[in-house]
Amino acid sequence: MPSVSSVGTEHGEYAHLSPLQRRYAELAADDPERPRLREQLINGYLPVAEHIARRFAGRGEPLDDLMQVATVGLINAVDRFEPDRGSDFFSFAVPTITGEVRRYFRDHGWSTRVPRRLKDLHIAIRSTLAELSQQLGRAPRPSEIAERLGLPVSEVIEGLQAGEAYRSSSLDEMLGSGEGKATLGEFIGGLDGELALIDDREALRPLLAQLPPRERTIIALRFFRQLTQTQIAEQVGISQMHVSRVLRQTLAYLQEQMAGLD
Amino acid sequence: MCLELHTTAGTAVIATIRTVAADLAARADFDLDSIDDLRMAVDDLCAMLVRLAPKDATLRCRFTARPERIEVAADVDVEDETEPPPTRSFGWRVLECLADDVSAVALPRELGQRSRICITVAKNAATAQQP
Q: N or C, which end of chain B is more exposed by having fewer CB within 10 Å?
């Protein structure tokens, strides 16, 4: 469990929020002052949510998403906290926020029911990928992951297969947020030479043009520049598994559209 | 090691076939990029063949795993005179990027056999490093 101890137990920087907290709890549900106080509390405690979200970063979920989930946890904590119960806000809020982020990893990220052991195994595998890829200059082999984790290769293969059931918010991925380090213009303009070798380019070109920038960049790098997924991950600034998901989804979309034009 | 699958040519079985390919590649200790490339290549190859196949046709996949290379040869029964997929298409371009070797042939009708289209992809263990 990620430690949140550095949030501190004294909470000096949040001391000014305590009276607000008490006042908020005392107000009647329909008091007109409530929404303003609530917003003030949520904004005031936002660094706590951010702190917790960062503790869970680097496990394959974008920090933006984790921030959103942690903020939902914070809002729940603000709404449900009862000062009369004697505990202070932090000892209530931290587990509430952490629990919300955990639940996101446990439930939201998995499209089918996968045993807990395999999920943990998959998370452990993912945590080694970036570092191993960097050291090797290519994607690792199962034996290399197994050695790093001190596990039998057969278990790593099982964990990798479990990962096939893992889908992080695919809709968000298709809509695509960041473009990463790779810029768009440099690819599309430069594709003409390679597109000339493709007979169905007239059907393909408008489909490529309609893709979100990041999806288009990833397709261009993989199928026109022939970079590996790991190299693309490096350039675009997302994980190899994320590149893999974007490639599969985008490719399926393109092929479906192309087939429809036949 | 050689493994053969015979099935009805339909989209429902493609997930099973690509999973077999990825599993063989993982057990042959291919790197993760290559495993995923082969999975996607087999998915595409099967989808191409299924599109060419008439209803109730048979799809056959033969997987040959050697230490540093996995070959997947798949064929499907087709109507006579069916053309193999065009090699100057985007779909073919994708296959060529995913696999190290790709080929397609049309096999004419012969005694006891219908006409067939066969596509073969091969993936080597080492990821080709482009500059």
A: C
- A196 and B CB contact within 8 Å: no
Q: What is the pLDDT of residues A29-48, one digit of tens each?
A: 888 888 899 999 999 999 99
Q: Which domains can be identified in chain B, with CATH numbers?
A: 2-124 (3.30.565.10)
Q: By the CB < 8 Å criterion, does A199 face chain B?
A: yes
Tell me the Ramachandran region of residue A28: left when phi exceeds 0, alpha when psi lies from -120 to 50, beta otherwise: beta
Q: What is the pLDDT of residues B24-75, one digit of tens each?
A: 999 999 999 999 999 999 999 999 999 999 988 999 999 999 889 999 999 9
Mind listing the pLDDT tens digit for each residue in B68-94?
A: 999 999 999 999 889 999 989 999 999
Residues of chain A with pLDDT under 70: 1-11, 58-60, 106-114, 165-190, 261-262
Query: Could you tell me the CA-to-CA distances from B127 to A77, A230, B29, B98 in Å, in that order?
Result: 49, 10, 12, 10
Query: B93 contacts in A (CB within 8 Å)?
Result: 197-198, 223
Chain B interface mutation, best of A143, A244, A249, highest count of B Cβ atoms under 10 Å:
A244
Beta strand B69-77 with B116-124: parallel, antiparallel or unpaired? antiparallel
3-state DSSP assignment of residue A163: helix
- The predicted model scores a pTM of 0.68
Chain A touched by B15 (CB under 8 Å):
no
B106: tokens are 């049309």
Q: Could you say which of B31, B86, B97 has the minimum Cβ distance to residue A223? A: B97
d(CA B45, CA B114): 20
Structure tokens at A134: 């960097």
Q: Which of B27, B32, B42 to mutate to test the interface with A (most CBs of A within 10 A)?
A: B32
Nearest CA in chain B to A219: B94
Q: How many CA atoms lie within 13 A of B12 on its CB side?
A: 3
- pLDDT-derived band at B118 (thresholds 50, 70, 90) equals very high
- The contacts of residue A229 (CB under 8 Å, 6+ apart) are A139, A222, A240, A243, A244, A247, B32, B33, B36, B37
CB contact under 8 A, A228 and B40: no
